[in-house]
Write the structure tokens for this entry.
Amino acid sequence: MKTTYLDRSPTPSKRTKTLLTITSIKEMKAWARRGHEEGKVIGFVPTMGCLHEGHLSLLKESVATCDATVVSIFVNPTQFGPNEDFGSYPRTLEADRKTLMSTGADVLFLPRQDSLYPDGFQTYVQVEEKTGYLCGKTRPGFFRGVTTVVLKLFNIINPHKAFFGEKDRQQLEVIRTLVQDLNLDITIVGKPIVRETDGLAMSSRNRYLSKSERDSARALSQALDLARNQIERGERSAESIRKEIRRIIEEHKDAEVDYISICDPENFTEQKKITSRALIALAVRVGKTRLIDNCFVEGV
């Protein structure tokens, strides 16, 4: 599996920027309006914080291709289910702020929960068909929360470009559909998965893992590597590949499969035979931590 590592070389012309922190929606809109009036191309990187090198790869792309970059940090309550980790999700604001000061980002947007979701809030946005698979199937309501908060942030920041990681491949395609269907003038840019040196996909939730659980978590990328090798050797049966992936993961007693999907990379319908480009997507619970990973394969 191809591993993407960050180029840590500085961007001299943009490292000296002062990072502006904005918490008010009104002030954020005013800043964005001035940027548009000055003809600036605004890039936007939405995050839930606990920044890692995957986030920084998105920031680097935005800083390199846009005149101004906004990064938001907001742990969005509407995309968490009742038994999920909203309360314990890692919040590392001061460390994140220090990290951002060296990236060339212009604005850190920290909206308050009661500003985005005031009393009486009752309007949600739902992308239909693409959210019926993968994480949308096993986490009911998740994508309704994602699309609602992303649209709200788009309306506040009014970016020209927004940057998302390929690790959340379904989310990326759902956001692209949202932008297309609602006629938003925003270019959605997807960037490759960034991995740890041991192959584990970068995730804020990786810090939940104990040492033994981290060893088990590596099974996700190992299983994807094996599946890709099987396809390169001519295997085309999706069911055979799924069984082999499950075998590798379930060799670890603390790993429980949520789903193993071999599907169309844009609409996520399952494939029986791999005859063209496909996405292999995994969700696995290691201990109490739910991890996702994916790779693309070619069936030609």
